[in-house]
């Protein structure tokens, strides 16, 4: 109990990091699972979301401005995702997909430096969420708790859409047998573009929400992409539940690990991934037909 009280803040930080990484990683996982596209520009889209926070909230945060920033980030992410869907629509080779999206990522990174500079930009949390809440005698940042709640809400909403609605049924059917779905009159290219756009919108929103914690700076796009890729590999390609479990693991390993084993913190995440792959090469919760959609 004493250890829990002493480390409650660190564990909450891990849950908060895991929550926003889940928002980013599930978009990457859905795109790969539905479109079989390896999108290495995903981290750049998340960084765009963080810089939206800089542009909109840099002069002072408020509830109205924070809501506007979320909408702007989501729209930019959606448009970027649709554009990437068009660019990759005729490419089936994963190496070429990786090279194309990596090139897009590098262009975006340079453009962001040109616009915002290369220094670290802080993004304020809304004033109403800037305080602390006491838990087990330890003060916990309110915004970190809200990050956890937002991640949970988005996760449940996505699960309901994918599992309980007609839209979700069409997406799942497109993954399993695209030719059959096309035969019944569904325009699968629009479905795939919508999934890509939705996944990119999640990345941008996740980057915005994480910005008060991770800041906005060049290089964070690669860091976030690395986190997302590790989460997807740990959880299983295309797996919704796997992405959630992987994000929670990575969040705790990165925060608790830094506290307990700071000298080895940079290796812990990869050690966990290697251990998971040794035990379950397909990931903790793999899904059948991940990436079966093809082009």
Itemize the secondary structure elements and their pairings:
Blueprint: H1 2-35, H2 42-57, H3 63-88, H4 94-116, E1 132-135, E2 138-141, H5 142-164, H6 166-176, H7 178-183, H8 188-214, H9 220-235, H10 240-260, H11 265-279
Antiparallel strand pairs: 1-2
Helix pairs in contact: 1-5, 1-8, 1-9, 1-10, 2-3, 2-4, 2-8, 2-9, 3-8, 5-6, 9-10, 9-11, 10-11
Tell me about this structure.
The chain is an all-alpha fold. The chain has one domain (2-279): ABC transporter involved in vitamin B12 uptake, BtuC. It is built from eleven helices and two strands. Strand 1 and strand 2 (138-141) form a beta hairpin. Mean pLDDT is 89; it is low at 290-295.
Task: Put the structure in a nutshell.
It contains eleven helices and two strands; from the N terminus they run ααααββααααααα. The chain has helices spanning 2-35, 42-57, 63-88, 94-116, 142-164, 166-176, 178-183, 188-214, 220-235, 240-260, 265-279; strands at residues 132-135, 138-141.
Instruction: Report the oligomer.
Output: single chain
Helical percentage: over 70%
Note the beta-strand portion. Answer: under 5%
CATH hierarchy, class: Mainly Alpha
Indicate the CATH architecture.
Orthogonal Bundle
What is the CATH topology assignment?
ABC transporter involved in vitamin B12 uptake, BtuC
Q: Which stretches of 5+ consecutive residues score pLDDT under 50?
A: 290-295
- Order of the strands making up the biggest sheet: 1-2
Overall 3D shape: globular
Rg, Cα atoms, Å: 19 Å
Count of the domains: 1
Number of helical segments with 4 or more residues: 11
Overall mean pLDDT = 89
Secondary-structure element order, N to C: HHHHEEHHHHHHH
Instruction: Measure the end-to-end span.
Output: 53 Å
What's the count of strands? 2
Largest sheet features: 2 strands, antiparallel
Class per helix and strand makeup: mainly alpha
């Amino acid at each position: 109990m004493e250890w829990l009280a002493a480390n409650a803040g660190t564990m909450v930080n891990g849950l908060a990091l895991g929550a926003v990484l889940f928002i980013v990683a599930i978009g990457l996982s859905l795109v790969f699972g539905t479109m079989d596209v390896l999108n290495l520009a995903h981290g750049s889209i998340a960084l765009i979301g963080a810089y939206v926070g800089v542009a909109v909230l840099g002069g002072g945060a408020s509830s109205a401005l924070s809501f506007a920033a979320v909408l702007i980030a989501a729209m930019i992410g959606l448009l970027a995702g649709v554009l990437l869907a068009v660019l990759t629509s005729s490419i089936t080779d994963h190496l070429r997909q990786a090279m194309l999206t990596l090139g897009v990522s590098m262009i975006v990174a340079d453009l962001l430096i040109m616009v915002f500079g290369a220094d670290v930009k802080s993004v304020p949390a809304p004033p109403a969420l800037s305080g602390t809440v006491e838990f087990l005698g330890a003060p916990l940042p309110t915004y970190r708790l809200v990050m956890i709640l937002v991640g949970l809400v988005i996760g449940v909403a996505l699960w309901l859409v994918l599992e309980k609605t007609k839209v979700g049924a069409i997406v799942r059917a497109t993954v399993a047998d695209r030719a059959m779905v096309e035969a019944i009159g569904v325009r699968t290219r629009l479905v795939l573009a919508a999934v890509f756009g939705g996944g990119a919108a999640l990345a941008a929103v996740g980057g915005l929400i994480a910005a008060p914690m991770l800041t906005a700076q060049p290089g964070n796009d690669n860091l976030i992409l690395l986190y997302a890729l590790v989460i997807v590999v740990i959880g299983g390609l295309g797996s919704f539940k796997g992405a959630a479990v992987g994000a929670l693991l990575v969040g705790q390993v990165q925060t608790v690990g830094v506290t307990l084993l700071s000298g080895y913190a940079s290796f812990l995440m990869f050690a966990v991934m290697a251990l998971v792959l040794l035990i379950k090469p397909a990931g903790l919760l793999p899904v059948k037909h991940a990436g079966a959609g093809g082009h």
